[in-house]
Amino acid sequence: MKKTVKGLSIALAGMLLLAGCGSKESSGDTKQGGTEKEKKTFTVGISQFAPHPSLDAATEGFQKALKDKGIDVKFDVQNAQADQNNTQTIAKNFVGDKVDLIFANATPSAIAALNATKDIPIIFTSVTDPVGAGLVEAFDKPGKNITGTTDNHPEATKKTISFITEEVKAKNVGVIYNAGEQNSVVQVDEVKKLVEEKGAKLVEVSVANTSEVKQAAESLVGRVDAIYVPTDNTVVTALDAVIAVANSKKIPLFVGELDSMKKGAVAASGFSYYDLGYQSGEMAAEILSGNKKASDIPVELPKSLKLVINKKAAEAQGLTVKEEWSSLGEFYDGN
């Protein structure tokens, strides 16, 4: 009887020893990234300034990049509906919620985010002039907690204006923009310079909100040979109104990005905003994974650029498409 009890005691001690060893090994696996380790879920606040195709595409690309990088993210997507006051409220709410990162889609959203926090990392996109907007000191010197991508490729506007003045032979070019959008003012200044260099004249019309866009377009009838719309959030949101005027009055319409071109403009020299958002998402992944800080990542330009001509829009706006234009870019047929 005593031998049996002794034997059981030895066996029980051995089992406890093995259990202890097994527990320690499992704990070690967890610390080293084993299957039992819980993956952290990050919260990313997305502040999009307005609902229109380019910004929508940028947000979609941003989210896809984080997914492709294997980052587990919960997105809080907010749209300011083109109201700058809303951008401030959204940014303050993100700070109050202590999100891990803010994605600011367009200049007003980026400015509001930076005004709200100097600690939470901010990635911006769809920003025309990040230096002029006060977001960064220089492309290679981003701020303490902010960096991102710009939608102002140095050659994009130049290519489009050259096409308008040299191929369409426009002598008077109308431009519609919101003077309250800093990114638009920068673009219009550049357009004016390029137009005048070609011996043409720029006719400017400014709007304060989307309800004024149609009237602004109508005011250009009889005064211009072509209309150019930059990447202005207010005007692009109401672009259908400009397209309607351009079609009915046979005035060729040109825009600053490809998504708007597809809606019904003759041509644009640009890039995919989805791709630009994806670039921004890759930056965010580096920050959330702990590999880099925002201050370590330079501001990036779009990685691709092309001139695209919309044949259907050209015909609708009274412009004869020349096959030799294919040497300048590529044709878009609506597919």
From TrEMBL:
Is Signal one of the keywords?
yes
Q: Which residues form the signal peptide?
A: 1-19
Q: Which Gene3D superfamilies match?
A: 3.40.50.2300
Q: Which InterPro entries match?
A: ABC_transpt-TYRBP-like, Peripla_BP_I
Pfam families in alphabetical order: ABC_sub_bind (PF04392)
**Mitochondrion in keyword set:** no
Q: Which keywords belong to this entry?
A: Signal
Name the domain of life this protein comes from.
Bacteria
What's this protein's name? ABC transporter substrate-binding protein
